[in-house]
């Protein structure tokens, strides 16, 4: 698995590879789960996401 990880990384050492993997792991764990936000955000009933998509070029 380490050889495969080196294919997708520009890391030079195993230590570098492990540090980057741990940084990604911690960042992913810190990220809030969108399901935890249910009921905490009020959505504007007039919000039209489809219109916004067509306005962007």
UniProtKB/TrEMBL annotation:
InterPro entries given in the database record: VapB_antitoxin
Top-rank taxon: Bacteria
Entry-linked Pfam families: VapB_antitoxin
UniProt name for this protein: DUF2191 domain-containing protein
Source organism per UniProt: Methylocaldum szegediense
